[in-house]
Design a protein that fits this description.
There is one protein chain. The relative contact order is 0.20. The chain is globular. The model has no long low-confidence stretch (mean pLDDT about 95). The chain has a single domain (about 5-205), classed as Flavodoxin domain (Rossmann fold, 3-Layer(aba) Sandwich). The longest helix is centred in the last third of the chain and has 27 residues, at about 180-205. Strands 1, 2, 3, 4, 5, 6 and 7 form a seven-stranded mixed beta sheet that branches. It is an alpha/beta fold. It has seven helices and seven strands; from the N terminus they run βαβααββααβαββα.
Amino acid sequence: MTRVAVVHYSSTGNTHRLAVAAAAAAEKEGAEVRLLRIADPHPDTVVPGTEAAVGEHAAASQDIPEAALDDLEWAEGIIVGTPVRFGLPASAVLRFVDATAPLSVPGKLQNKAVTAFTSGSAPHGGAETAILSLHNAFAHWGALIVPNGSTEPILFQPENGNPYGTASVSRNRPGNVHEDNLRSVEFQARRLTTIASALARGLADA
């Protein structure tokens, strides 16, 4: 059974909805899945006007286990979800990635299959650059990046479209994730699971 960690930070719940869909799709594909949250950032990073939604989501998601380095070492496939912040991943996600040196430097993240998705407030508001910023870190890990590509019909729907990873446009409204985005991240999770499984088998036979 392929081991998949879905690691995400979500402020108002949109990225969380994508993470839940990804975890369910990976599990349906036959993976053993850990749905994990990254710890909340400093209150100064909350987007103005979303304070109430942030508090509601924090209360609703408090029972989700917090991601740890052990989870990354356990996983054969890793899915990372982040909100967009100024064209970059959220600071909480960057801090988590920055803390992976104890694993990445000894090579404990190399040859893992990894992919990323995001949710941002506006079209053309930095979703692609946020995902590609995470790809930079994955390259340093020595991991194998699994992009969505541009092959599946769901990826050509108007609400989707970028080949790097699923990106949802929330317009700063909690719970505003288009159904096409959910279908896209499900495809992404299935693809990641399939590749992680094949990779683990191949490395075991090498």
